[in-house]
Design brief:
Length: about 100
Amino acid sequence: MQLSTDKLMQDLRAVIGDAEELLKATAGQGGERIEKVRARAEESVRIAREGLKAAGEEVGDAARELNGRVHDNPWAAVGVAAGVGLLAGILLARK
């Protein structure tokens, strides 16, 4: 799951970077319609960048909290992991 989240974050960063490059490349273009589209695109990039930053902070906070709980209760964490593994094994063996 962490790998797919990292890939998604990387893809979003690439899209934001590409959009910023496109905005820079079309900076010399004129016209009322182009200006409106550029303004919407700039706002969308700004919102996406803020959302990406907030999501990264939330993931980091959750990971730190989980890490702290595992360190505080290592045997409980082992028990939960074993239970999830057993349940997954039973479900997969049925198919």
